[in-house]
């Protein structure tokens, strides 16, 4: 079985205008737009400033390679405003290493969207406040991609709260990345399963059990997503495919029916994690997390962050007592200790899933809120 067939194979770079529909190819569209929508857009005052909040995300969840992910309650905030000259300011995570020029991913995606929709590109000031660590397997590049595309749509006069525009945003983001496991939860929040069907990216939300917590061990060292993908084989066996299909199905059932205990089996993987062990020794950390009481654990995205699932103790609300937090801290201490024993430095963070994704506010030149 060849890995990466269909929508998930290598993609050539392309302008969004390649997605424009032709009469013989109606499925490839830049998004649904009715006559009424166009009239409403014509009434809207030009956007002077847009403020965006995009969550971190964890992808794969073990067996759901390139197709499953959920949002985390860790956020990047991006403010984009018309200016007399280009400026890019970054504070927080990645401030010392992320590009501050017009080659920055957010700036590039904003420009690409505006140009592809036939609009002039205004001079903009980007101000980024980042809580999502870059190149750690927490969806930082997807958050930046979504922020840039969303800013471009906003300055093109699009209401980012519209279901049609959010769907368009997903199509653009998923086509840019080649998969939607991070961008779908970044846009819609929650646990999303993403498929590509005849050129369309389609997502479906899965329920997240009450009381679920995420314990993340985040190594200090970064891991290149490109290198992590390059080490994967071109083909996998039927045995490995069956292994993952069965566990992915069980994983969805566990979340949908709030069953925590089977997650230690449902979050196992045979398609990608074992090929990345030479880059980062994460397997002992997963083992020690499970022994400390985690329900399941996996390599978050391409790594190197390891995420362990805890919670489900007593009543659903995590903040109603200290038991859930106490047990999550026990797991976090075990993960940090396991990493230190292997000479790996890093920090732990306890998060909860975010049921909401991209949040935005559009403001006109008079300070009036447009949406």
From TrEMBL:
One Gene Ontology molecular-function label: homoserine kinase activity
InterPro entries in the cross-refs: GHMP_kinase_C_dom, GHMP_kinase_C_sf, GHMP_kinase_N_dom, GHMP_knse_ATP-bd_CS, Homoserine_kinase, Ribosomal_Su5_D2-typ_SF, Ribsml_uS5_D2-typ_fold_subgr
UniProt-listed GO biological process terms: threonine biosynthetic process
Entry superkingdom: Eukaryota
Uppermost EC category: transferase
One of the Pfam families matching this protein, by short name: GHMP_kinases_C
Pathway where it operates: Amino-acid biosynthesis; L-threonine biosynthesis; L-threonine from L-aspartate: step 4/5
Family, per entry: Belongs to the GHMP kinase family. Homoserine kinase subfamily.
Protein name per UniProt: Homoserine kinase
């Amino acid at each position: 079985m060849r890995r990466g067939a269909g929508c998930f194979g290598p993609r050539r770079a392309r302008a969004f205008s390649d997605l424009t529909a032709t009469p013989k190819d109606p499925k490839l569209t830049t998004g649904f737009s009715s006559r009424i929508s166009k009239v409403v857009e014509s009434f809207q005052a030009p956007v002077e400033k847009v403020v965006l909040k995009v969550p971190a995300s964890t992808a794969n969840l073990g067996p759901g390679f390139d197709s499953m992910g959920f949002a985390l309650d860790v956020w990047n905030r991006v403010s984009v405003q018309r200016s007399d000259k280009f400026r890019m300011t970054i504070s927080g995570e990645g401030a010392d290493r992320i590009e501050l020029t017009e080659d920055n991913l957010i700036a590039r995606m904003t420009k690409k969207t505006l140009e592809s929709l036939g609009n002039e590109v205004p001079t903009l000031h980007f101000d980024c406040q980042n809580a999502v660590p870059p190149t750690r397997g927490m969806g930082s590049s997807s958050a930046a991609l979504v922020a840039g595309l969303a800013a471009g749509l906003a300055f093109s006069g699009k209401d980012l709260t519209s279901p049609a525009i959010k769907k368009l945003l997903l199509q653009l983001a998923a086509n840019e990345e080649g998969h939607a496991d991070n961008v779908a939860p970044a846009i819609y929040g929650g646990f999303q399963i993403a498929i590509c069907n005849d050129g369309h990216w389609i997502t479906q939300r899965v329920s997240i059990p009450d009381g679920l917590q995420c314990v993340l061990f985040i190594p200090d060292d970064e891991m290149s997503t490109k290198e992590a993908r390059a080490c994967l084989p071109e083909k996998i066996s039927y045995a490995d495919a069956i292994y993952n299909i069965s566990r992915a199905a069980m994983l969805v059932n566990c979340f949908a029916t709030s069953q925590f205990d089977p997650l230690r089996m449902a979050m196992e993987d045979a398609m990608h994690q074992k090929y990345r062990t030479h880059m980062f020794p994460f397997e002992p950390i997963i083992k020690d997390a499970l022994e400390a009481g985690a329900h399941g654990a996996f390599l978050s995205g391409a790594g190197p962050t390891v995420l362990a699932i805890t919670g489900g103790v007593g009543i659903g609300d995590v903040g109603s007592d200290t038991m859930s937090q106490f047990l999550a801290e026990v797991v976090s201490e075990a993960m940090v200790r396991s990493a230190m024993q292997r000479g790996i430095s890093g920090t732990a963070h306890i998060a909860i899933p975010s049921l909401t994704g991209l949040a935005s506010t559009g403001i006109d030149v008079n300070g009036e809120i447009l949406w």
